[in-house]
Amino acid sequence: MNVFKLLSRSSKAAQSAPSQKLPSAGAVPNPQLFRDDEPVTVSPDTRKSKKRKRGKDAQDMSAPLPADLDFFGTSKKENAEPAIQATEKERKRTSQSQTDTEINGAQEEMEAEPYDEDESKRILRSHKLKVTVLEDFAPQEDEAQPEKKKKKRKKEKKIVEKKKDAKKQLYPQPLTSFAQLRIRYGISRRLAENLSEQAYKLPTEVQLGALPLLLRSRKTEQEGQNGNSISASASGAEYGGDVDLLSVAPTGSGKTIAFLIPVIDALLSEKVAEGDDGPRAIIIAPTRELASQIVNEARKLSKGTGLKATLMKKGMEVVERPEEEDSKDEAEAARNFEEEEESASDSGDEEKVVQQKKRKRRRADKVKAAILVTTPAALLNALKQNDGSLASLLSVRHLVLDEADVLLDPLFREQTVSVWNACTNPLLRVGLWSATMGSNIETLAISTLNTRWTSLSSTNTTLPLAAPSSA
Ligand SMILES: Nc1ncnc2c1ncn2[C@@H]1O[C@H](COP(=O)(O)OP(=O)(O)OP(=O)(O)O)[C@@H](O)[C@H]1O
Predict the structure, then answer these.
(1) Above 0.90 for ipTM, yes or no?
(2) Which atom of ligand 1 is nearest to the CA of 256?
(3) Residue whose CA is closest, atom 24 of ligand 1?
(4) I want to staple 247 with a disulfide (CB 3.0 to 4.6 A). Which of 6, 121, 345, 451 is the partner?
(5) Strand order in the sheet with 2-8
(6) How far apart are the first and last CA of the chain?
(7) Which of 22, 51, 62, 263 has most ligand 1 atoms within 8 Å of CB, for mutation?
(8) Residue with the nearest Cα to atom 28 of ligand 1?
(9) How many angstroms does the Cα of residue 230 sit away from the middle of ligand 1?
(10) C-alpha radius of gyration, the chain, whole number
(11) Distance, CA 59 to ligand 1 centroid (Å)?
(12) If you measure from the C-alpha of residue 256 to the centroid of ligand 1, how many angstroms do you get, rounded to a whole number?
């Protein structure tokens, strides 16, 4: 398990994004990609809502690009064409893709073609995207062995090497069109259709850098053998999407679908034991308003896939109550049900009937959806047990903290970390997404991951090693 950090337009974000502000706090610039040189103006429209409206901006995104940023249309050519020709080509390509929903063979081949190392670096650099390896929590195979001096020295050397490696920079294969999601990463057909239905064509910067890291590339093996293309270890593809990611990108830059696509795709490919329904992915947001926007987006993307997304509401149950308590309740209920109903209606004892109804409703309200979107407090309440302890969420494999800087700020920190620690599945993948991330928040995130990993590896010997052998 590795932790990567993706920084999208860090300098601009630091200047323009208000630190520690809740999403509802107000005016923000629209930091859409390809608009680096334009001065940021805040229109009255954006003041009303911080969310970028897709209709207008999607048109902006498809506008002709300057030649030096035209990597979608003519990037395969060695020499950049004059700006005017590139513009014309881009226009043709855009209008073609607007009218043509089916990707033809030639286009498909082009989308499947990986960028070579130089091209990848250039594209990532032009979008000011930087990906670094923050930590590697893989248990060392010799950790459990009694340590002899020689071994100890070897291990110390390894640690020094690992620390040196910790700031290694990665160059993921840039995702330059949504069509590549299906062609290169084999995402579910239905998910790809849903994206296309929502008119998503060109990824934003954060999507361009994050999606290749979080999805499993179909082409890794060929890429590894191809001298021209970027190696799997330098691109991060060797981890097959099995990474924890801290992603910092400006407000309104499309982080929501950047974390939803990999989560939905992973959920669709995971095998679920019969009767094992309930949340397998939890997305935490600091406000209910933001949580409800995320759930809407998740529903659009998972339409027709069989996956359900739900917003945590008061009174919902997320875990089975302890068996003893349940069976005691059930037995009691069965014994008393008829008697109670009879006597309640006879004696007008409404209290008992209300209690019965409540008990029934509680069971009916247990979350069955695979994706649960919640604020930390709402989930924490649902996890609290009678003895004050927290129930664990063993079935949860994906945890996303949206607005992670706010969630890990002292105001929410305890709740967030408690929920995080309640996710006890050793294969849990964590994504932290934020417009800003102070070094204290980053340190806290890393140390939470570290503590968790250390405690899990001491109790569980089946944890995966650093990198899967193939992706
Ligand atoms: N690739 C894309 N093409 C066009 N529109 C997009 C794309 N990605 C996202 N959007 C749209 O941009 C808007 C803003 O995206 P989103 O809310 O995900 O930003 P965000 O980075 O999550 O913001 P926040 O920091 O507030 O959570 C949404 O309306 C979304 O549908």
Answers:
(1) yes
(2) 18
(3) 251
(4) 6
(5) 169-170, 129-136, 2-8, 243-248, 429-434, 398-402, 281-284, 371-374, 309-311
(6) 14
(7) 51
(8) 52
(9) 29
(10) 25
(11) 14
(12) 6
Paired residues of 366 in beta bridges:
317
Give residue 71's pLDDT band: very low, low, confident or very high (50, 70, 90): very low
CATH number at residue 175: 3.40.50.300
**294 alpha carbon to ligand 1 midpoint, in Å?**
10
Q: Is residue 329 part of a domain?
A: no
Assess if residue 331 is contained within a domain: no
- The structure tokens listed for 108 are 């498909």
Residues contacting ligand 1 via CB (< 6 Å) = 23, 50-52, 54, 57-58, 61, 200, 202-204, 207, 251-257, 402, 435
Q: How many domains does the chain have?
A: 1
Nearest to 284 by CA among 306, 263, 315: 263
Query: Which DSSP helix (H) or strand (E) runs through 184?
Result: none
Residues near 223 by beta carbon (within 8 Å), at least 6 away in sequence: 114, 173, 217, 229, 230, 231, 232, 235, 237
How far is 430 from 421, CA to CA, in rounded Å? Answer: 11
Annotate 444-460 with DSSP letters as a single string.
HHHHHHHHHHHHHHHH-
354-388 burial string, b = 16+ CB within 10 Å, else e? eebeeeeeeeeeebebbbbbbbbebbbbbbeeeee
Nearest CA to ligand 1 atom 20: 252
Containing domain of residue 314, as a range?
A: 2-38+51-63+105-320+365-459
Give the tokens for residue 141.
């195979």
Question: CA 168 from chain center: how many Å?
Answer: 22
Tell me: the pLDDT tens digits for 106-133?
666 666 677 878 888 888 888 888 888 8
Q: Does residue 337 fall inside a structural domain?
A: no
User: What pLDDT is attached to residue 295?
Assistant: 97
Other Cβ atoms closer than 10 A to 242: 18
pLDDT tens track for 255-301: 999 999 999 999 999 887 766 778 999 999 999 999 999 999 999 99
In the reported structure, the alpha carbon of residue 182 is separated from the centroid of ligand 1 by a whole-number distance in angstroms of: 20
Instruction: Kindly give the distance from the C-alpha atom of residue 252 to the centroid of ligand 1, in angstroms, as a whole number.
Output: 5
Which tokens go with 167? 């700031």
Distance 53 CA to ligand 1 centre (A): 8
Residue 345 maps to a domain: no
Backbone angles phi, psi at 369, to 5 degrees: -65, 150
Among 257, 263, 406, which residue has the most ligand 1 atoms within 8 Å of its CB, making it the best to mutate?
257
Q: Which atom of ligand 1 sits closest to the CA of residue 402?
A: 27
Query: What are the pLDDT digits (tens) for 47-66?
Result: 333 444 444 444 444 444 44
CA–CA separation, 85 and 213 (whole Å) = 33
Contact present, 31 and 13 (Cβ < 8 Å): yes
Q: Whose CA is nearest to atom 3 of ligand 1?
A: 200
